[in-house]
Amino acid sequence: MTQISKDQWQSFCRKNPSHSLLQTAEWGELKSGFGWTPAYAATETAGAMVLFRHLPAGFTIGYIPRGPFGHNFSTLWPEIHALCRKNRAVFLRVEPDFWQGTPEADELEYSMEGFTPAFATVQPPRTIVVPLEGSEDDWLARMNQKTRYNIRLSQKKDLTVQESDDVSVFHQLMETTGSRDAFSVHSESYYRKALDCFKAGNKARIILVSYQEKPLSALMLFTEGIRGYYLYGASSNEERNRMPNYLAQWTAMKLSREAGCTEYDLWGIPDEDEETLEAQFQERHDGLWQVYRFKRGFGGQVLRTMGSYDYVYSPLLYKAVKFADEQRRKRTAA
Question: Rounded to whole angstroms, how far apart are CA atoms 193 and 198?
Fold first, then answer.
């Protein structure tokens, strides 16, 4: 088996439930609306969805988000490289989903001959994963005292929790949060397509928390395989004493377990070791530090993926892409 169809890829994913949300055909469909073209390759034991982004003169960039997955990867890479060369990729970026230091990560890294550390990352490499084993009392017992208190408080503050399809309200809250916390947000059409792509399989929903019909907090929950994902979340500047964000997360954890998940991924935190995170979170306010202050209390484990790697097919064009990326980052930081 080499390059395969979307239907074949979905079947392959069903046989390998440990795959990431970002390796699903639904994620490929989402990205296809925003400049990427998905392709799928698999052997009997391993597979990957590769996203291609077009460059001038018919060249592309290849990207494997949170993949590949499976085992015996040495049989897969020749298929991936052939696919990338067929699509005239300047380079291939790979961001595996395996946790650093695990046997799975070691096996994959051993197979990645010719790859070098990437000059940038796309997805945040470090996260907090909350286990969903045990009772809800067990979940609360694993949390820190302040988070546990805020969850219980939110349940007494006359808040309403509902599943919603109102992407417009969700986007408005995202705009408010982005303005408040100084980060960029996707367009309303992006969030709408994300919900549409995954909702058909009951794999995505918006959790909306309101007070007297006024939206206060919302998150878009994704569930895939063993994991629930908190990729996008937002809140109003009003009624924050009612702790709506805590109620939204608590609801997401419960819905994740109802979907058969055994863990809940809070997604990005600063890419620092746990000792540094704990030493600096009260003083730092830049980047992902504010969200770490919130996420750290939910009783999860700080984990890091293997990181980001590039395989270069055209060295000269790769240098040009790298230079352009550096200039873009300088303009953004200015």
Answer: 9
